[in-house]
Predict the 3D structure of the following.
Amino acid sequence: MPKAGLKFHVTTLVCEATGGPCKYTGRSMKDSHQHLNITQAQWDAMAADFRATLNTFKVPQKEQQELIAIVESTKPDIVQAPGARQR
């Protein structure tokens, strides 16, 4: 997916998840990520980058915790369990 398309889908998903007026119409998290074989280590790296970005933009801690909880709720559909990788 081109960067612009990814940015659009992520923005729309976060907008909807945080109560905004947007409506996410993309594929499910599971369908979107299953072929990527994302590991726990990769998830942890993304989470660290996400927290650093929130800190860079001085997002208050309460809002950071809310956003991180939303992102964490998607983890079961994104991270592949060891041995469950698809080829």
